[in-house]
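[Discussion] Sanity-checking designs against the backbone

I'm trying to build intuition for which residues belong where. Below is a structure token string of 202 positions. I'd appreciate it if someone posts a full sequence so I can compare it with mine line by line.
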């Protein structure tokens, strides 16, 4: 049985992303395209090639990372992906669905946990936590169902959808269907920790 719930009023993040158009899928969520070697352009093509980076920069600003960065309420999440060297998970062509904790959600972690997670020696643990928030493919609010949902990290989220709303591993979904060029963001009010991670052991 499919449960459909009504999206809550979108915050500033939604207004930033509402007009964006989802691009066709080229690679899977979190997949990084291999670098290719390109021959040096002929003299007459140099001027055209100089213009391309500006277009690429504009497209990058529309990705999940760009939309989250522009909002200002997800600085910790974006910084954590950078610290874990997993930015490509949210900036690739996707598509991805991200359960995005706010800065306030990260502040609610036990004292000292976030600081420890951001240490270089805990990069692997941080990556496990962050990829636990990402699902491959686009899952709009209208398609959310109760059940186990596989993440790009190889684990599963426990999703409950009913008349009162949606929870993901007990965290409340507070804003839905924020669209980026490479996927969808659903905002949650807590940081999700997979069972394989024990923050107290850091």
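Best answer:
Here's mine. Compare freely.
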């Amino acid at each position: 049985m499919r449960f459909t719930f009504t999206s809550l009023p979108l915050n500033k993040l939604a207004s930033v992303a509402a007009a964006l158009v989802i691009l066709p899928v080229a690679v899977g969520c979190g997949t990084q395209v291999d670098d290719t070697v390109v021959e040096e352009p002929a003299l007459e093509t140099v001027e055209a090639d100089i213009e391309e980076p500006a277009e690429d920069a504009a497209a990058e600003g529309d990705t999940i990372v760009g939309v989250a960065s522009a909002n200002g309420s997800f600085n910790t999440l974006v910084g954590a992906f950078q610290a874990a060297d997993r930015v490509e998970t949210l900036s690739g062509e996707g598509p991805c669905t991200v359960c995005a904790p706010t800065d306030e959600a990260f502040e609610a972690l036990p004292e000292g946990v976030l600081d420890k997670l951001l240490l270089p020696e805990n990069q692997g643990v941080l990556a496990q936590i962050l990829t636990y928030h990402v699902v491959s493919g686009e899952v709009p609010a209208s398609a959310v169902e109760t059940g186990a949902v596989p993440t790009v990290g190889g684990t599963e989220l426990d999703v409950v959808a009913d008349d009162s709303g949606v929870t993901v591993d007990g965290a409340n979904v507070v804003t839905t269907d924020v669209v980026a060029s490479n996927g969808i963001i659903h905002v949650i009010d807590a940081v999700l920790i997979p069972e394989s991670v024990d923050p107290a052991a850091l």
